[in-house]
Design a protein that fits this description.
InterPro entries: RNA_pol_sigma-70-like, RNA_pol_sigma-70_dom, RNA_pol_sigma70_r2, RNA_pol_sigma70_r4_t2, RNA_pol_sigma_r2, RNA_pol_sigma_r3/r4-like, WH-like_DNA-bd_sf. By secondary structure, this protein is mainly alpha-helical. The protein is 70% helix and 0% strand.
């Protein structure tokens, strides 16, 4: 077995579920997320078959997932087709509360434009700084701040106030270089 094959096997076995969760946040659909991850893995190993470290391979795959999503080749077409199936309930009692909250977040993310959604996912799911998001998406820091501000405002209208101190993250608040 070649080194790249071992790397691929380890990546898919150990990091595959995390990659699918990451793609799911972007696409809003499990099947689309799985397709996106598969496409990203294939594209990564076709171009970079010499990869020998799982961490480097995962980094390339995550970048490919993000780029593919932002470029619009997988804009959640399937999710928009079934979004009406997610029924909002005003009653958040019982064990289904967490499931409903997750569905609400996914539905709210689906309403964001792709670049705004990517910035929000990278900030709040990947916990990247503004500078890191800007580098990942090849945007200016100011554009990232604007996208985060717009995304946060839109999400708060749908979901209510964000518990995290968004101002600290968006404008670099007191003592933090985010």
């Amino acid at each position: 077995m070649a080194d790249w094959e071992r790397t691929l096997e380890t990546l898919v076995r150990d990091r595959g579920p995390a990659l699918v969760r990451y793609a799911y946040l972007l696409t809003g659909d499990r099947a689309a997320a799985e397709d996106l991850v598969q496409d990203a893995v294939v594209a990564t190993f076709v171009r970079r078959g010499q990869l020998r470290e799982t961490a480097a391979a995962e980094s390339y795959v995550r970048r490919t997932i993000l780029t593919t999503f932002v470029d619009g080749t997988r804009r959640g077409r399937r999710f928009r087709d079934v979004r009406h199936l997610l029924v909002r309930s005003d009653s958040h009692e019982g064990p289904e509360r967490g499931v409903q909250e997750r569905a609400d977040v996914v539905a709210a993310l689906a309403d964001l434009p792709p670049r705004v959604r990517a910035c929000v996912v990278l900030r709040f799911y990947e916990d990247l700084t503004i500078a890191e998001i800007a580098r990942a998406l090849t945007l200016s820091d100011g554009a990232v701040k604007r996208y985060l501000s717009d995304g946060t405002r839109t999400l708060e209208r749908t979901l209510g106030p964000v518990q995290d101190d968004v101002e600290t993250h968006v404008v670099g608040g007191p003592g933090r270089a985010r």
